[in-house]
Write a structure and sequence with these properties.
single chain, 303 residues, alpha+beta, Aminopeptidase, 2 domains, 27% strand, globular
């Protein structure tokens, strides 16, 4: 059971049902989806509470690792914001709330009269069309379409497999590919640690029925993988994705093949998560032509 504010509890696996029962009322902002909360929780001190019937989360910034408060819900937003800003001050945190979903903002149209509210574009969720990823039609997908064709031509003996993330052999293949990607990118372990922990923590969730994986093999070697999960409505989320960069077109091919599966499962949209303000990631995500964004905001006291 999630405690009532000002009490908090650390996030645990058995909180999954309570969180998913709450978040299914709203668009699937990835910051509040249980899978994201669990895997991107490297210090395992993400904490949750209920305030004004809103879900409150204290978590760490993906880049700075600094703690902050955020919430999802549409009940008495002014009071929730006031109390969370006060708590941030009391704990000597930055005097702001982050990752506040647009739906929580528009629930109280006069919030701008009391607070400074600005778009947090670095944390907008990119929403892609599954049908478009399958068809890759039109000029806007010209480059992606050509890369998929190139991959198929160069590596015509590729094999696609559904990955059972509960199997130790599959886990080891995924980690081996992660280490290869790390080396190819010239990244230090200190730079990739959060992602590596996310891989391990995703394995903790592997028994959940809505988490699956797709692997691309060439000559019996895993060269690319995607993990995805179904979300309420007609959405899916992409948790992790890595590929061997020596294979031309591996990432467009992975997205294209994953979309085929998602379409079969009845999904219309894929939450491709945020770009975190990282220029290369921003450019790469925009090239997938999002059909819209799930917007988020930063809230501070008015000067």
């Amino acid at each position: 059971m999630i405690p009532t504010f000002p009490n908090f509890k650390k996030l645990e696996l058995n909180d999954r049902n309570a969180i998913e029962d709450f978040t299914k009322q709203f668009p699937p902002y990835n910051d509040f989806e249980f899978i994201d909360l669990w895997i991107y929780n490297p210090r395992t001190d993400t904490a949750i509470s209920i305030l004004d019937n809103n879900l409150v989360v204290n978590r760490q910034d993906y880049i700075t690792d600094e703690s902050f408060y955020t919430f999802l819900g549409t009940n008495n937003a002014k009071n929730t914001i006031t109390k969370l800003l006060l708590k941030s001050k009391e704990e000597n945190l930055a005097p702001q709330l982050k990752h506040i979903p647009e739906i929580s903002i528009i629930s109280s149209p006069n919030l701008q009269d009391f607070f400074s509210i600005t778009e947090d574009q670095d944390n907008f969720d990119y929403i892609l069309s599954v049908n478009e990823l399958v068809s890759l039609m039109g000029s806007k997908y010209h480059n992606k379409r050509n890369l998929v064709k190139l991959f198929k031509k160069l590596y015509s003996d590729y094999v696609i497999k559904r990955l059972d993330l509960t199997q130790d052999e599959i886990k080891q293949e995924i980690k081996k590919l992660f280490y290869l990607w790390e080396k190819q990118k010239g990244r230090k372990r200190s730079e990739t640690e959060i992602e590596l922990i996310a891989v391990e923590k995703l394995f903790d969730l592997a028994g959940l029925r809505n988490i699956s994986g797709l692997g691309v093999y060439h000559k019996n070697k895993l060269i690319g993988f995607t993990t995805y999960h179904l979300l309420p409505g007609n959405y899916a989320g992409m948790s992790l994705q890595k590929g061997d960069n020596t294979y031309q077109g591996i990432y467009p091919f992975l997205n294209h093949e994953t979309a085929k599966i998602l379409k079969e499962l009845g999904c219309a949209y894929l939450n491709y998560e945020q770009d975190l303000g990282i220029s290369g990631l921003k450019k790469a995500k925009k090239l997938w032509r999002p059909v819209f964004y799930l917007k988020k905001y930063i809230i501070k006291e008015r000067a």
